[in-house]
Design goal:
About 35% of the residues lie in helices and about 25% in strands. It is α/β, with parallel strands linked by helices. The chain has a single domain, classed as Metallo-beta-lactamase, Chain A (4-Layer Sandwich). The strands form two sheets. It has a six-stranded mixed sheet with strand order 1-2-3-4-5-6, covered by helices on one side. Strands 7-8-9-10-11-12 form a six-stranded mixed sheet, with helices on one face. Helix 8 crosses helix 9 and helix 9 packs across helix 10. The longest helix has 27 residues. It is globular and about 60 Å long.
């Protein structure tokens, strides 16, 4: 258990995705940054997450309508699913990278182009992005704090991380894969480059990832090292199996890779198939 600044409130949101063997439990974090001047929310969780998020706001003695800004680290269902309900309830502005805008504003297009099990249960609907943000931009929080936008593609083309200054607290979205968990990214080379960029930022004090519990101190860099190694491990497995089985089909390849890296058979879902396909384009 780590101690971090009291203005940051991680909100762990459980959900499930369907699979042939039954519902698979998952979770994602949203983050509320509360200063005297403002409430800023990083990511909106899945459809229905607004109840948990608004409950956290009320526990702080604040009102949901005080959420003035919602920053989406990228466009995937577990990050935008609750955005429509949150915006309708609060009138907040929504910020995202230009490369993610299409899928945030047209969720039906996202479902067609990146089908995810249970998509329609996870996503409440589309929202309009009112502020486009890119690498090097700054989001003012008040009380002398600001979020620096860092473009960290790989998981998706417009994925961003956010560095809160002056405390040097990193919100990494889904940029850092979790060893032993589903490898989900669209571009392994870009993912490696983004991880190395984050690893080269000095004096990060805390890491708030969407996929893992908060980390502090040396654990921050160990976590990034482990994520880097996990992408390399998937790449090794893909290379090993494609050499051993020339002409292998993508579905069969994914099943063998999943087994090689120690994941259960049900991990060979459409999202992981997409990842393995990205590795074959690399090789």
């Amino acid at each position: 258990m780590i101690t971090y600044p009291g203005c940051i409130h991680p909100i762990r949101i459980p959900f499930t995705v369907p699979s042939p063997s039954g519902p698979v439990p998952r979770f994602v974090f949203s983050f509320l940054i509360a200063t005297k001047e403002s409430l800023v929310l990083i990511d909106a969780g899945v459809h229905g997450s607004e109840q948990r998020i608004f409950g956290e706001v009320r526990d702080l003695g604040r009102k949901p309508e005080e959420i003035g800004f919602l920053v989406l680290t990228h466009s995937h269902p577990d990050h935008i699913g609750g955005a429509m309900a949150i915006q309708e309830a609060t009138g907040c502005s929504i910020a995202a990278h230009p490369a993610e805008r299409k899928w945030i504003e047209d969720t039906q297009c996202q479902e067609r182009e990146r089908p995810v099990p249970g998509f329609r249960d996870l996503v409440g609907g589309p929202v309009r992005v009112s502020r486009l943000i890119g690498d090097g931009d700054s989001i003012t929080l008040g009380a002398g704090r600001a979020l620096q936008v860092i473009h960290t593609p790989g998981h998706s083309s417009g994925s961003i991380s956010l560095l809160m200054r002056p405390e040097m607290i990193l919100f990494s979205g889904d940029a850092i894969p979790v060893p032993g968990d589903l490898p989900i990214y669209d571009d392994p080379d870009a993912s490696i480059e983004s991880l190395e960029r984050l690893m080269n930022i000095e004096h990060i004090t805390y890491l708030f990832s969407s996929w893992a519990e908060p980390k502090g101190g040396e654990e921050v860099y160990f976590t990034m090292d482990d994520g880097h190694a996990w992408v390399k491990e998937v790449s090794r497995a893909v290379s090993l199996i494609t050499v051993a089985h020339p002409g292998i089909g993508l579905d069969h390849l994914t099943r063998l890779v999943v087994k090689e890296i120690g994941l259960p058979a049900e991990a060979a879902n459409p999202m992981v198939i997409r990842t393995i396909k990205a590795h074959t384009r690399k090789s």
